[in-house]
Design goal:
This protein is of the alpha+beta class and 253 residues long. The chain contains 2 helices and 15 strands. The strands form 5 sheets. A 4-stranded antiparallel sheet has the order 13-14-9-15, covered by helices on one side. Strands 3-8-7 form a 3-stranded antiparallel sheet. A hairpin with a 6-residue loop joins strand 11 and strand 12. The longest helix is centred in the middle third of the chain and has 22 residues. The N and C termini lie far apart (62 Å).
Length: 253
């Protein structure tokens, strides 16, 4: 095969190049398949999650009520307004906002709540289906039993206390408590407890957080952990729940 190439500025001068066929010993023994037909790393077939379709068990002392969006006289909505589910239990109240395409139902005989979507072929609706179901299940568990987070302080001299007042932080609401940490700094670290969360220290090296909203409890636990992230050489730090860390070998010079 012979190719002719010409320079853009000098059209009169053309260069002829000859491409020789590849020798047999350089030809691959197996044909190279395109990337679309290549075998994936996993041998199992992909399977969609069924979290959204799973029913939610509602305890007898928990009540769920579907609230319609507020109606405005003369208002026109391009998108259907979202509805709200109000969850009330022995520990308090919570609410979950439903997307417009999510449908809610409950069987009073079996005390099972279910969620469904309008179009099961839509990817966006399927993603929010499972997310909304998880939010609702967490709130049902929160108003009936509550969510907890246990923090362990590992280190020489590490300890924590819950104080009614603070010197470095101003209270955000009346009666707010503060978690005071002594974790190796020259001054104590004071963190305000969010509203709806109860903090206690059953031991000087343990912090117990309780609340209805799982997101708020875990977020406050993460903000406490941020002051002493567990390090892999001595194993010191603030650990949340069953968190562990794999120790590394010490660096020897």
């Amino acid at each position: 095969m012979t190719l002719v190439s010409c320079k853009p500025l000098r059209l009169s001068k053309c260069v002829q190049r000859t491409i020789l066929p590849l020798p047999d010993f350089l030809v691959p023994a197996f044909p190279i398949l395109p990337s679309s037909t290549s075998r994936s790393f996993s041998s199992s077939r992909p399977r969609a999650s069924r979290v959204g379709a799973a029913p939610i068990a509602v305890p007898p002392d928990v009540n769920l009520r579907l609230l319609d969006p507020p109606k405005r006289r003369g208002a026109f909505y391009r998108v259907e307004p979202s509805k709200t589910i109000e969850i009330e239990g022995p520990l308090g109240k919570a609410s979950v906002q439903l997307p417009p395409f999510v449908r809610y139902g409950i069987n009073e005989a079996t005390r099972k709540a279910t969620l469904d979507i309008l179009d099961r072929k839509s990817r966006d609706q399927k993603e929010m289906w499972g997310t909304t179901r998880s939010y609702l299940a967490n709130h049902v568990l929160g108003v009936s039993e509550g969510h907890t987070a246990i923090l362990r302080l590992v280190g020489v001299g590490y300890r924590a206390t819950v104080e009614p007042t603070a010197t470095t932080v101003k209270p955000e609401y009346p009666g707010q408590q503060f978690v005071s940490l002594k974790v190796g700094y020259s001054h104590p670290i004071e963190l305000g407890v969010p509203m709806g969360v109860k903090a206690s220290t059953p031991l000087p090296t343990r912090i117990l957080l309780e609340g209805i909203n799982k997101e708020v409890v875990n977020s406050f636990a993460a903000s406490i952990r941020r002051w002493r992230v567990p390090e892999p050489y001595k194993g010191k730090g603030i650990f949340v729940n069953e968190e562990t860390i794999k120790l590394k070998a010490k660096k020897i010079k």
